Amino acid sequence: MQYSSEHSARVRGPRRFDPKTMRSKRLSKSIRVIVGNLRRGNGSMVVQAYRFARAAFTPLQARKWLKDHRVEFVRFDAARGRR
Fold this sequence. Notes:
The chain is mainly beta. Helix content is 12%, strand content 34%. It contains 1 helix and 5 strands. The chain has one helix spanning 59-68, and strands at residues 6-10, 23-26, 31-37, 45-53, 75-77. It has a 5-stranded antiparallel β-sheet, covered by helices on one side. The longest helix has 10 residues, at 59-68. It starts with 5 loop residues before the first strand and ends in a 6-residue tail after the last strand. 18% of the residues are buried.
């Protein structure tokens, strides 16, 4: 899904999660992580997606950050619209 102010890297599909457990946590001023419990998991919080502020990261910079941190993702969506 495209957002206007953030680039998004999906690690797992949102339907795999219990929606009541979904949370957003800041890793830094410009990076958020979406976490939650898997429906068929052991109760541990796991990453669903990473979000990068468009004002701080280009799509290429966000992808490089993911690669540098060895984050595997299934889908990447650049923020839509203009800066």
